[in-house]
Design brief:
The complex is a heterodimer of chains A (about 160) and B (about 190).
Chain A lengths: L19 H15 L1 E2 L6 E2 L4 E2 L3 E2 L6 E9 L4 H4 L4 E4 L2 E3 L1 H13 L10 E6 L5 H13 L4 E5 L1 E2 L4
Parallel strand pairs in A: 3-10, 5-8, 8-9
Antiparallel strand pairs in A: 2-5, 5-6, 6-7
Helix pairs in contact in A: 3-4
Chain B lengths: L10 H17 E2 L4 E6 L20 E6 L5 E3 L2 E3 L4 H10 L11 E5 L3 E5 L4 E6 L5 H27 L8 H10 L4 E3 L10
Parallel strand pairs in B: 3-8, 8-9
Antiparallel strand pairs in B: 3-4, 4-5, 6-7
Helix pairs in contact in B: 2-3, 3-4
Classes of the chains: A alpha/beta (about 160), B alpha/beta (about 190).
Chain lengths: ~160, ~190
C-alpha cells in the first residue's frame, strides 16, 4: 500500500526482532542434537590415561561403558578405597560383568549385537590385575571389541 | 466492522528460548569419547588348558611390563621412548636379519611385489600390579609404530599420508602392515607379590 509520507522529522524505524526467537531456536536445536546427556553419575573417580594414537568412538549407541576406579569420597565409608567397577549407576563385581554384557546385548537390536563395543574407562592409576580380570570376563561374554578410553596428548 | 486485533507481543519468546538454550548448554557435555581400539581373542573352551601356540621364535616380539612399570623387550630392559623404533625395526626387518621375522614376497594390488613379514606377532604381557597408564603407553607406542610404517609406505607409494589415501589404498597398506598385537593369557611376571 502506498502511503503518503508526512513531512517532518524522519525517524529510523525500530529494527524488527521478530526473527530473533527463530534464530535462537535454531541454536537451541543444534545444541540439543549434538550434545548428549551425561551417561551416568560417576560413583568412581576416573581420570583416563593419555595417549597419542587415539581414535574417535563412533556410533555411541553401540557402546557400553565399564568404569573402573576408586570410589568417590561419599562412598568411601561404605565401599572402602580400593578400586571398584561401576556398571551403569551402581557398583559391581567382576562376577556381575558377564551377566551385564549379556543383558545389554539382548536389549540391543539384533543386527547391532555383533558390533557391540565395550569401552573400558579406567583411572590411570588402576592396577592391571583388575583390568585383566575384566578382559577375561569380556572374553567369556564374547564381547571382543573393546576400547581403552584415553585422552589426547602430544608425544612424551 | 471487524475489530482490529493487536498482535501478541512476541518479544519475550527470545528470552524463553534463550533460557532453554542456556539450560541445555549447562546440562549437556560435549564429551567425545576417544581411545585405543582392540580386539580380544575368543574365549578358550572351559575344559581346555591355555596352550602355547607354536610360533617361530624369530617371529615373536615380546614386551613384558613388570610391577615397577619397567619394560623387558626381547629379553632386554628398554626405555619406553625407544620402544617404537624397536618395534618398527622388528616389523619391517629391513636388513633381512635372521633373528627378525621372516620376509615373504607377495604381489599386492596397487603396490606391485613387496616383501613383508606376514607372520610376525607382538605379544604384550603385564603383571598384576602394572599401572594402567604404562600399559596404555606401551599399547600406544606399538600402534604408533604401525601407524608410522603405514604412513611411510603411503608417502612412498601414493605420495600422501595414510589418512588421506582412499579406501582401497588404505586396505592394501593394511595388508602389508597388519596390526598383530596379541593379548597374552594373564600370567604373573615377577614382582612384589
Amino acid at each position: 500500500m502506498a502511503q503518503i509520507r508526512k513531512k517532518g522529522t524522519r525517524e529510523t524505524p525500530a529494527m524488527s526482532t521478530t526473527s530473533l526467537p527463530d534464530i535462537i531456536f535454531i541454536l537451541l536445536f543444534f545444541f540439543m542434537a549434538v550434545t548428549s546427556m551425561k551417561e551416568v553419575t560417576y560413583k568412581v573417580k576416573v581420570s583416563p590415561p593419555s595417549a597419542t594414537e587415539i581414535q574417535k568412538l563412533e556410533n555411541k549407541s553401540l557402546v557400553r561403558y565399564i568404569y573402573v576406579g576408586e570410589p568417590m569420597r561419599d562412598f568411601r565409608e561404605q565401599y572402602g578405597t580400593s578400586t571398584r567397577i561401576q556398571l551403569n549407576d551402581q557398583f559391581a563385581d567382576i562376577a556381575d560383568l558377564e551377566q551385564f554384557i549379556t543383558l545389554e546385548r539382548s536389549a540391543m537390536k539384533e543386527e547391532d549385537q555383533n558390533v557391540m563395543t565395550v569401552s573400558i574407562k579406567a583411572d590411570k592409576d588402576t592396577k592391571m590385575g583388575i583390568i585383566t580380570d575384566i578382559k577375561q570376563a569380556l572374553r567369556r561374554a564374547y564381547a571382543l571389541k573393546i576400547v581403552y578410553q584415553a585422552g589426547a596428548r602430544k608425544a612424551f | 466492522m471487524a475489530r482490529k486485533l493487536s498482535p501478541i507481543n512476541a518479544s519475550s519468546m527470545a528470552d524463553i528460548s534463550f533460557l532453554l538454550l542456556i539450560f541445555f548448554l549447562v546440562t549437556t557435555s560435549m564429551n567425545v569419547s576417544t581411545g585405543l581400539t582392540r580386539r580380544l581373542p575368543p574365549p578358550l573352551p572351559p575344559d581346555q588348558q591355555p596352550q602355547d601356540i607354536d610360533i617361530n621364535k624369530r617371529n615373536l616380539f615380546v614386551v613384558k611390563i613388570n610391577s615397577m612399570n619397567q619394560l623387558l623387550v626381547q629379553g632386554e630392559e628398554l626405555d619406553i621412548r625407544d620402544l617404537k623404533e624397536k618395534a618398527k625395526e622388528f616389523i619391517q626387518n629391513k636388513s633381512n636379519d635372521p633373528d627378525l621375522p621372516a620376509r615373504f614376497s607377495k604381489e599386492f594390488d596397487l603396490l606391485g611385489t613387496m616383501e613383508y613379514t606376514k607372520e610376525h606377532v607382538i605379544s604384550v604381557g603385564n603383571d598384576v600390579d602394572t599401572q594402567y597408564q604404562t600399559y596404555i603407553d606401551v599399547q600406544n607406542e606399538l600402534v604408533a609404530a604401525y601407524n608410522e610404517l603405514r604412513n611411510e609406505l603411503a608417502k612412498d607409494k601414493f605420495g600422501k599420508a595414510f589418512e588421506e589415501c582412499d579406501e582401497q589404498q588404505q586396505k592394501v597398506i593394511q595388508e602389508v602392515y597388519p596390526q598383530k598385537i596379541s593379548e597374552a593369557e594373564p600370567k604373573n611376571y615377577g614382582g612384589t607379590n
